Amino acid sequence: MAREQGYDLVEVAPKASPPVCRIMDYGKYKYEQSKRAKEAKKHQHTTHVKEMKFRPKTEDHDYQFKLKHVRKFLSEGNKAKMTVRFRGREMAHIDRGRKILEKLVQDTQDIAAVEQPPKMEGRNMVLVLGPKH
Length: 133
Description:
alpha+beta, Ubiquitin-like (UB roll), Translation Initiation Factor IF3, 2 domains, about 30% strand
C-alpha cells in the first residue's frame, strides 16, 4: 500500500504491543523530529559557573566592583565560584581570606545560597554560591 501511494512504511512505536506502523513520507518525519528537538533545546536553560578571584589584600573598592559582577551572575541564574588565592607568606593569613568570603556570603544572602562552604584547596580557598529560586 505504501509503495502504491509513493510513501514509506515507518515503525513509529516499536515497543508497543502490537508495534505501531504508519504510512508516511520518512524524510518529512525525520525533519519534523529534528525541528522538535531543536525547539526543546532552545527552551532549556543551562547554568554556568562563573569564577571571581580575590586576594587576601583585596581593597574595598575592588571588592565592591567584583561584588557587583557576582550579583549580576547570580541574578542571571548562574552559579558563582569565589576563589581567594594565597601566594608566598600570605598562607600565614588564611583568616583574611575567610573574612572576605564570609563578607561575600553576607552581601549576597538576599539572592544567593551557599552551595559549598569555604574550604582550602591547596593554596586557594574556594566558596560556591548558587542563585535562590
